[in-house]
Predict the structure.
Amino acid sequence: MIETLKWDPNEERLILLDQTKLPQETIYRPLETLDEVIEAIQALRVRGAPAIGVSAAYGLVITARGINQTDFEGYMAALREKADRLKAARPTAVNLQWAVECIMGRLQQMDLHAVENIPGVILKMAIELHEDDRQRCELMAEQGQSILPPKARVLTHCNTGFLATAGMGTALGVVIRGHERGMIERVYADETRPLLQGARLTAWECQQLGIPCTIICDNMAGALMKQGAVDLVMVGADRIAGDGSAANKVGTYGLAVLARAHRLPFYVVAPFSTFDSRLPSGDLIPIEHRNPEEVLRVMGRCSVAPDQAEAWNPAFDVTPPELITGIITEQGILKPPFDVAIATLAKLQPGI
Ligand code: MRU
């Protein structure tokens, strides 16, 4: 499987597969400063909630190496200020804040005095988070097998495979494992306007792995379901509130409504690092709004609207718990009522 991101130990930098260039070009970019990491996250060179979290962890190593302060207090204050900037790069995917806070919280509990040791300590934690995400993906892929009917035809939205995580993926990870076991007949990939993560990235991932995949425009999902061509819908999430509401790429909510109208199961696949039980309701999830130009042009190039046209461009929407059949996690499938299931999970997994 192609690596989405890796740490270069010789040059001490983060190497990212630039997803804005896919599927035409496979270009790896070295990132050596905090500003470059923030730019890569904001421009979606790296995207997908878990992949953003792991990139931010390595971003913190780069940041820590760039701080010149020699006194401990001054160093930690500078690190905290830069960590806050990193956390704010994109607002919706909670994995970004989770990864940065995980590292900053552990640092605070350690008995560190020599500032020169700190970057090495952070690097060790970033490598652990990277491996941790890979393992979470494996576990979710296994857990998800029980909901796949034979010859499953799965409709998905955005991109949730190895490009979006440090492992095999969330929703697409379940499909990939199912395909290895002969359970998948076809993936239907919503193209995912405006930035086409489904057409550009999910279809490309499926091609790499030999999984039959058909791209549809987002507005074709209802017609496809009505024909009886879909067995279930499976998507990822960027943040799941305490009531089970799931923020994911804009268009997910519409798919959930359609799935309910056609009596199809609608599953969300997400690791614990995507849960945010500090927020009791989905209404509290911050939604990123991006440049309207993304709607008015296709991939920044061809204009598809009259000059001066206005556009609305929320990057995510929130699917309410009553439209979700189950949430596939690394330790099992949560079922409604999700507030109870998540509260139980939060007791077992402090920090979610
Ligand atoms: O704006 P993006 O491309 O980062 O949005 C990604 C998604 O919406 C994914 O579905 C989500 O991160 C969960 S799957 C890893």
In short: Residues 44, 47-50, 93, 158, 160, 164-165, 170, 197, 236-238, 248-249, 315 surround MRU (CB under 6 Å).
